[in-house]
Amino acid sequence: MRMIIDTLCHIASSKFSDMEQLISDSKELGVTHAITQGTHRKDWQPTLELVRAYPEFLSSCLGVHPTDAHALQDGDLAELAALCQEYPQAAIGEVGLDYYWPAPEGWSEESYRARQRGLLEAQFELAAQLGLNISLHSRDRSGSVCFDDVFAIARNFPKVRPVFHCFIGTMDQAESIFNTLDGYISITGVVTFKKMDALHQVLINSPLNRIMTETDAPYLSPEPYRGQLNIPGRARFVLDKIADLRGMDREQLAAITTATAKQFFRLNPKAAI
Fold first, then answer.
1. Would you say the C-alpha torsion 13, 134, 69, 80 has a positive or negative sign?
2. Confidence category of residue 268, pLDDT binned at 50, 70, 90
3. Can you name the residues that pair with 97 across neighbouring β-strands?
4. Prediction pTM value
C-alpha cells in the first residue's frame, strides 16, 4: 500500500500515552506521517516537543482554536508568531470559527462570535506573513452562517490557501472553496458513518487533487471503530471509503492525496512519506 498522510490530528492529547505503539500501529495501516495540531497556548510546547522527538512521523501546525478565543491573553499571538518563526510549521491551524457551542459565561453570542472573527483574521495575517497555508475549522449549529463568515474572511487573504478540515458541507460550498479560494477539503472518518449521502456525492464529484484525508484523532474514529479512541493510522479507512466511492484503485488515490498534502503543507518532497 502506498503511504498515507493524516493531515490533522491532536497527538498531544492526554488520551494518548504510548507514542511508540501509536506510531507502530499507524504505520502498519499505511500511515507514515501525521500533522498534529497545537490549538491553544498550553498545547503549543507539548506539540513541539512531540515533533522534535518524532520528526520522521510528525509535523505540526500551531494556532488558537475558535473555542479558546475567549481565553486569549495579551501576548499569546506574539508568542504564537515567535514559535512559528523558531520552529517552522506545516501550516497555521487548527483555527477558524465555531458557532455550534454556546458562548461561555460572561459573553454574549454576538461578542463571542466577533472575538472569534477577529482572532481568525489575525491568524490569517500571521499565515500570510510567514508564507504558510491555513487549516480551518467551521462548525454551524444549523444553516451555514459560520461557513459563510469563514469564507468571507478567507477571501480577504488570497495568498493563503485554506483547507476546510472535517468537511461535511454541500457541493456548492466545496466548489466555492475550490474555485474562489483555491482551497481544499479534508475528510475524516465521518465519511464512513451512515446517512452521509450528501458528503459522498461531494467526494464523487470533486477534483481528486483537492481532497485530503485526516483522522482528527483521538476523535471521530471511523467505522468499524466508531466510538473508540482514534489514531492517525485510521486515515487508511477514510482513504478506502473515498476510493470505493470513486471506484478507483486505493494506491492511485493514496498517491494523489499524499502528493496534495506534501505540496499544501510544504513537506519535504523527498521525504519517505
1. positive
2. low
3. 138
4. 0.95
